[in-house]
Design brief:
- The chain is of the alpha/beta class and about 525 residues long.
- Helix content is about 25%, strand content about 20%.
- The chain has 16 helices and 22 strands.
- The strands form 5 sheets. The protein has a 5-stranded mixed beta sheet with strand order 1-5-2-4-3, sandwiched between helices. It has a 5-stranded mixed beta sheet with strand order 6-8-7-9-10, with helices on both faces.
- Helix 6 crosses helix 8 (about 215-225) and helix 11 (about 285-295) packs across helix 12.
- It is globular.
- The chain starts with a strand and ends with a strand.
- The structure holds 2-acetamido-2-deoxy-beta-D-glucopyranose (3 copies).
- One 2-acetamido-2-deoxy-beta-D-glucopyranose binds near residues 280, 309, 323 and 324.
- One 2-acetamido-2-deoxy-beta-D-glucopyranose binds near residues 391, 446, 447 and 501.
- It catalyses: Catalyzes the rearrangement of -S-S- bonds in proteins.
- InterPro entries: Thioredoxin-like_sf (IPR036249), Thioredoxin_domain (IPR013766).
- It is found in: Endoplasmic reticulum lumen.
Length: about 525
């Protein structure tokens, strides 16, 4: 029985006729007023239209139902947000895995060999007892990991054929066009085409003793990635890109599901990025050292090549880079989006290994973006802060500093710009009050991460490096009241001060900062 919360009227055709007694996609629709309640099953474009009177009948008549539950006017945005880039193919795969067998039973060596070579990635569980606990864990993983083919084997003949004696999950990978260490580089007809899948090893064994489903999933995910991935996601040019430091980039469009999902779906805690110009043979050759360093960090650091002249160009802004900066290396810590850079790029495998180990050991400081301060940054009524000048101004213990963190493209920021200027004018002669702004798309701070635009923070005078987020109405009078009242609004309960150190881990930026009042990231 399948209930999927997504509008997929066209899935009916996608599955068309292929599955016996097949899945039926249904929609629930509000009844027209005055319509007689009946349990008739009616179709619209091959999709059953369900409502409270015929739902039970549909359930009893079909082995499997895929049902979209929807609320008029709401479903599309919600579904898009939740589901991201679900496409027909992945939904069909998801459905097949649930409606059909989760893993193919391999009876003998011939069927096993055929199955293993049927796809790029095949996971086979060898279990002495297919009814046992270990096999159940494997089935559980198979249900969710629909992009990999799953098989199970119990026969002694198969254990022997694959050289196994205990329960084991084996991931079989197609090895193609393998490049030896220091060997020839595969030069493609078009430099902008992604490389074909090319695993470095054909098979990885996981003894299942003590593995739970989460850990087995993680291992299979990690080992289904190529040792070096390439970032090949199309980003629509001209669309506002969000914060520069964010990796994964928050794409404002639904791009085609290329390697983006694999790279970010594996949940590997660090990404090591090699930016290069794939049109340059000399730069292409740098992949050798990069690849040589990768194996030692498998599962901990994912190695990704970004072609700055191809599909990778669009992500350069997230790193404050231009194509001319290639070749270069960056390491990103995924948990906080901090980026690390060698003092001087060195592309040898040994140097890359040493650098990564130093970052993992906490011995390297993250590299933060900062624009140059404009000449008149501190003579304007609204001071213009950048990464480099932030610390000295915001944490000046003799001043109360009120800062707007904004993005140039954000409409809510533009809407409050005049009010902020006016506030600056109003307080320009107050010795102890500073009104400032900070372009958070060109500057990063070590301990403050901005989650939505605009974000307003107040840094009161005095010791303790306090920071208070302003979450009220964005007009001059309310801003003034807040300032005059020492960083809180009289009629509201005091805002709990937070230290900058703690703000980086906040998930939910502000109860007031809804989509209506600010651009969330
Ligand atoms: C990339 O390399 C090619 C070949 O060397 C060169 O013509 C091109 O200008 C380079 N592109 C960039 C952005 O550096
Ligand atoms: C950021 O936080 C760390 C850890 O609390 C601290 O050592 C460091 O001085 C802080 N940096 C700034 C610029 O506030
Ligand atoms: C910062 O966060 C940690 C963990 O959430 C908490 O234990 C600590 O008290 C917080 N510190 C401050 C100064 O709020």
């Amino acid at each position: 029985l399948l209930w999927l919360l997504l509008a997929l009227a066209w899935l009916g055709t996608a599955l068309g006729g292929e599955e016996e007694g097949g899945e039926v996609v249904a929609e629930e629709e509000e009844e027209e007023d005055g319509e007689v309640a009946s349990d008739d099953l009616e179709e619209e474009d091959g999709v059953l239209v369900l409502h409270e009177h015929n739902f039970a009948r549909a359930l009893s008549e079909h082995r499997v139902l895929l049902v979209e539950f929807w609320v008029a006017g709401l479903v599309a945005p919600v579904a898009l947000r939740v589901a991201g880039r679900l496409d027909t193919e992945s939904i069909v795969r998801w459905l097949r895995r649930r409606a059909g067998p989760r893993a193919t039973l391999l009876q003998d060596t011939a069927t096993a060999a055929t199955f293993v070579s049927s796809q790029d990635l095949v996971a086979v569980g060898f279990f002495k007892d297919l009814g046992g606990e270990a096999a159940q864990v494997f089935y559980e993983v198979a249900t969710e990991m629909v992009d990999v083919a799953f098989g199970v084997a119990e026969a002694a003949e198969l254990f022997q054929e694959y050289g196994l004696s205990a329960d084991t999950v084996v991931l079989f990978k197609k090895v193609r066009g393998r490049r030896g260490g220091g060997g020839a580089i595969l030069v493609l007809a078009s430099p902008h085409q992604p490389l074909p899948l090319q695993f470095d090893e054909g098979r990885t064994d996981f003894p299942v003793e003590g593995l739970d489903a989460a850990e087995l999933t993680r291992l299979l995910r990690v080992h289904s990635l190529e040792l070096v991935m390439e970032f090949t996601n199309e980003v629509q040019p001209g669309l506002p890109l969000s914060l520069p430091g964010l990796w994964p980039p928050r794409l404002h469009s639904a791009p085609p599901p290329q390697t983006f999902d694999q790279i970010f779906g594996a949940n590997i805690p660090h990404h090591m990025l090699l930016f290069l110009n794939k049109s340059s043979a000399a730069q292409l050759a740098l992949q050798d050292g990069f690849r040589a360093a990768a194996d030692a960090f498998r599962g901990e650091v994912l190695f990704v090549v970004v072609d700055v002249t191809g599909l990778g160009a669009a992500v350069l802004s997230f790193f404050g880079m231009t194509p001319a900066d290639a070749p270069t290396l960056r390491l990103v810590k995924m948990e906080n989006n901090r980026k690390y850079q060698m003092d001087q790029d060195d592309f040898s495998g040994a140097a890359i290994r040493v650098f990564i180990q130093a970052v993992l050991d906490g011995k390297v400081k993250p590299r933060l973006l900062s624009a140059e301060p404009p000449e008149d940054w501190d003579t304007r009524p609204v001071k213009v802060l950048v990464g480099k000048t932030f610390e000295q101004v915001a944490f000046d213990e003799t001043k109360n500093v009120f800062i707007k963190f904004y993005a140039p493209w954000c409409s809510h920021c533009q809407a409050m710009a005049a009010a902020w200027e006016e506030l600056g004018e109003r307080y320009k002669d107050h010795e102890d009050i500073v009104i400032a702004e900070f372009d958070a798309t060109a500057n990063e701070l070590e301990n403050i991460t901005i989650h939505g635009f605009p974000t307003l923070h107040y840094f009161p005078a005095g010791p303790g490096r306090k920071m208070v987020e302003y979450k009220s109405v964005r007009d001059v009078e309310t801003f003034s009241k807040f300032l005059e009242n020492g960083g809180m609004l009289p009629e509201e309960p005091p805002v709990v001060p937070e230290t900058p150190e703690n703000s980086t881990s906040r998930e939910d930026p502000s109860p007031l900062g809804t989509a209506e009042s600010r651009d969330e990231l």
